Request: fold
Amino acid sequence: MTGVENTYSSVQLPFAAIVGQEDMKQALMVNVVNPRVGGVLIRGEKGTAKSTAVRALAELLPAQATVGDCPYSCDPAAPCPACQERLARGEELPVEQRRVRVVELPVGATEDRLLGTLDLEAALATGEARFSPGILAAANRQILYVDEVNLLDDHLVDVLLDAAAMGVNTVERESVSMSHPAAFTLVGTMNPEEGELRPQLTDRFGLCVQVRGLADPASRQEVITRQLAWEAGPAEFAASWRKAGQELSQGISAARELLPKVQAGDEVLARVVAVSLGLGTDGHRGDLTLLKCALTMAALEGRDAVQIDDVNKAALLALPHRLRRRPLAEMEFDIADKIKRI
Amino acid sequence: MTQRVNEIEGSRRPVYPFAAIVGQQRLKLALILLGVDLGLGGVLLRGDKGTAKSTAARGLAALLPPLAGGRPTPFVELPLGATEDRLAGGLDLGAAVREGRLAARRGLLARAHEGVLYVDEVNLLPPHLTHLVLDAAVSGMARLEREGLSLTHEARFALVASYNPEEGPLGPQLADRFGLCVGVKGEPDPALRVEVLRRRLAWEADPQGFAEAWQDEQDALRARLIKARERLPQVEMAGAERALAAALAAQAGSQGQRGELACARAARALAAWQSETRVAPEMVELAAELALNFRRTRSAAPPAPLPRLLQADDNPEEPPTRRAVEEDGPALETGDQAGQERSLRVLAPGAVTPVATRLPAREATSRTQAGRRSAREINGERGRYIRASAQRLGRGLALDATFRAAAPHQKARRTPGGPALVVAEPDIREKVRAARRGRLLLFCVDASGSMNAAARMNTTKAAVLGLLTEAYQKRDRVGLVAFGGAGARELLPPTSSVEVARRMLAELPTGGKTPLAAGLVGVGAVLERELAADPKLTPLVIILTDGRPNVPLAAGQAKEYDPRVAGNKGGGWGDGWGDGGYADREVLNLARRLHAGFRARFVVVDTDTGHHHEINLCRALAEYLGAACVSLRRLTAEGVLDLVRQHWE
Reply:
């Protein structure tokens, strides 16, 4: 298993130093706090810090208990089938605290690399059909990042959808028959000018945000200032932002702890459904994502109860990509007014 | 290797209980009936995203009675990336290599025996796999004939397949092979929707506890299902009810007999489920909703395919056959060019060698291939690996199949201390791949200053945006060439982005004369570029015009198509299209070149409002392009979209 993951831990532009793009940052933070929100699709023009933000996320990611030598980085509290078998044989699982990683799926990846394939070496040496894990294995319990997700080959999208829907990668090919956990947070970026994404895949992203180039001159100037400072001395720049980064990290940790205790009352559930129906979303997946996002946003603000306003704000992230579009209309992101009127 | 039985996640997480699914009565009923009678031929679920389709299928597996020996009921999910050998079964590689023994490995179909086989997004599954699955679902057997093995496994399973029509249609011949079909929609009632949310949240928080809370209801359902299965053989269906099923099927216009058979079978299962031993008329009616609604033939008969006016001409010098033209021949507006024309006629055919043209010569085979092509392309380098082939075409090596082919010979080939596996030349197998291929649609629109120009342009723009918005054509690209004034412009280079199209088409220039020839040259330029980038493309070109060209090409550009050059004189004048003006003949010459030179299909849309009975050039243009000529009385975006759909697939 080599060359599977790209991790970004070294000298990235710090997350806290990204100017503006609050929706995008909020959506990413929500996903870090609560992976069950189901990922985020970031749509926007070139040069709007999409990839920078995702890669910078790595430094904010929390540590989680992991079975050290498991190819699927499984959870010791809920081990994968292979580790269950080891337990049954009386083995002890080595447990480590490991940071969540950003695993990147390159657009040109082959199906074999994504799914995993027949282990050639083992087949030649022993004649055994053994499984060699792929990117989906590496992505279990991590963030799977697909840059330019709209350019991904159709058959890879199908496979990705399958895994994203089930949290399991099932391989039935090339004499290999197995399944392994592949529960990942899907983060995709795309430039809509290069083609749209299939609705089925769009729906698999919990949240969707639109990023635009910054409009106001002061912010644009700030971007230049920071970028130049970072380029002049990445290490010093990172050091000067360390404190802000740590505060973010602490906020995330606190929110993760608080999240299981956050309550949503009946009026909140009613509001979720009203907003969802009022905007005309497909299916029920939107309702659940909206609620989870609202719960997480409350946790990020240190509250243990969801307010109506959390739902309204969460709807801006959880629903734009689930609205039924009129045949010739653009995707609507400015739905705040509509939500208010519901 | 894990056996995927019921515990979907490979952990001990239970399945969301079937009994706890809110609403969705039709969906639940169809699945229950399938549970009562596995021979129903499968249930097809079509509907919105996120409407409990797969939850229900999984729930059904947990509801079915456990197998002999207390093994839990299998729930086998067919992944889209599956290969044929995994589905049907194949040679056991390990046994073959280690022991030199031919042993079969069961495929997914056999593994689903007495359980549920779930195929999500069945419309995306390669058709040959779908047929394999359906064959097994109907026969109850998985047959394996490959690699020297011939085996039959029992494979009686409940087939549940789902798809979202937004992602592309399921071919009618495939849909028809399912027994029942249910449309699934999101719950519109807010109170029920809150309940869905509440239960889902409770289940996610504590699956174990949730499942326990629903245990009694689950057990009751299961017990009733088992009783119904036992009762099923005794259920009688009288002649009147059989007649009713037949009548309903006929009324629905269901083709073949599968409809009434599925209806009758579902009605019997329904009777058994309702603890009856006789089928009542209302049961037949309810069963018909599930078994017949989706077989209903469309109310309006599908439009008859428009005949190609021109057969693939092996001899391009032969004039196209003239059809459906008024006796007095085309009346042309360009009377002022009559003198010029007479002088043209005296040139003897063949006196001048045809001038080299920018348009590439037609490949010998391209025309025959240019007909209806599926969006699938086999043997490409990209795409999904669907099966292996022993034919050597230099495609990627299919390791698995190569090993399997080598495996039986290992005992004989192995030498002490040598490698475990010895592969010989005849074992080599290559991968056959299938990929969906995007298509290219090019509009060529008359933007000249006639009365219709603005309507034509706006309609085309709406059609372009509509096409790009239609979700299932995401890989398709649409472009637009407009001609008006002195020349043609590529207003929209082929794109798949609605955003780009909207921006590029924000302003639509109209006015001026009608340089149709320039428009055709523009089309040729785009086709040449696009086909160079992807030679396997078969673009569809739609030309919208009044058919009254009045501007010839600029002098320098015109030489190649100049009707005064004998080699260019389209059809040798004996084509029945009369003496057209200079601009007309030029257009027809160009049309013939386009037809012969490119692997593309053309449709001419005559936008002439047709109050006056003048003959325009559209029909002639269509003939020379080997295209259909369609007259749209009322020009609407929907009309254009229909036209595209009709000619595209």
Remarks:
- Chain A touches chain B through 72 residues (CB under 8 Å).
- Chain A has a mean pLDDT of 82.
- The radius of gyration of chain A is 21 Å.
